[in-house]
């Protein structure tokens, strides 16, 4: 199996969370499988997650965001690890997308057209998502708003395909044994990346 350059982004602000355990398990298994892998923990980074002027005025990227942008450019496979809060990803992860996935880097609108160029094509992605809602309920009742946002309106919009999403939950009622099984799944995903 060919090795890949993998970028892992932990979108949970708390690195000691179950999401942090998933990100660490993925990193260790990817490295053990011979992949090149790097992990960014957003909760340990200092950046303004607010795009202050929209696309009207340029907002300089902090050094850590420049580093993430370079890592995204070099990666073949992106892994996002985060919880579902209020139906979507945490504000910190959304702030990363708002600040880094900018016109001219992640996409470009065509002159005089409603269409756009997807500038991050050639990469795949996998989102590892924890939730307290049972995944079947999130899918059937809520219709997966956070999953649709991540897959369709962020990653695929910028050309990243295929995008796979794996849900783990309900976390709140899970046992240590269940969490270990989920971590084993994450390790298997990393080996097959």
UniProtKB/TrEMBL annotation:
InterPro entries on file: Flavodoxin_fold (IPR003680), Flavoprotein-like_sf (IPR029039), NAD(P)H_dehydrogenase_qn (IPR051545)
Flavodoxin-like fold domain location: 5-183
Keywords noted in UniProt: Oxidoreductase
Pfam families: Flavodoxin_2
One example GO MF annotation: NAD(P)H dehydrogenase (quinone) activity
CC per GO annotation: cytosol
Family as reported in the entry's similarity comment: Belongs to the NAD(P)H dehydrogenase (quinone) family.
Protein's UniProt name: Putative NADPH-quinone reductase (Modulator of drug activity B)
């Amino acid at each position: 199996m060919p090795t890949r350059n993998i970028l892992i982004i932990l979108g949970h602000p708390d690195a000691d969370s179950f999401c942090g355990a998933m990100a660490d398990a993925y990193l260790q298994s990817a490295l053990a499988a011979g992949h090149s892998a790097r992990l960014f923990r957003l909760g340990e980074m200092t950046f303004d997650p607010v795009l202050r002027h929209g696309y009207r005025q340029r907002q300089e990227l902090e050094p850590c965001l420049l580093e993430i942008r370079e890592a995204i450019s070099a990666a073949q496979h992106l892994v996002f690890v985060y919880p579902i809060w209020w139906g979507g990803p945490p504000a910190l992860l959304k702030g990363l997308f708002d600040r880094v996935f900018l016109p001219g880097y992640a996409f470009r609108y065509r002159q005089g057209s409603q269409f756009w160029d997807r500038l991050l094509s050639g990469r795949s992605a996998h989102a590892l998502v924890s939730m307290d809602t049972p995944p079947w309920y999130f899918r059937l009742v809520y219709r997966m708003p956070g999953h649709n946002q991540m897959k369709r309106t962020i990653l695929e919009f910028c050309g990243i395909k295929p995008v796979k999403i794996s849900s783990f939950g309900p976390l709140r009622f899970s046992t240590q044994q269940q969490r270990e099984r989920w971590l084993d799944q994450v390790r298997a995903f990393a080996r097959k990346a």
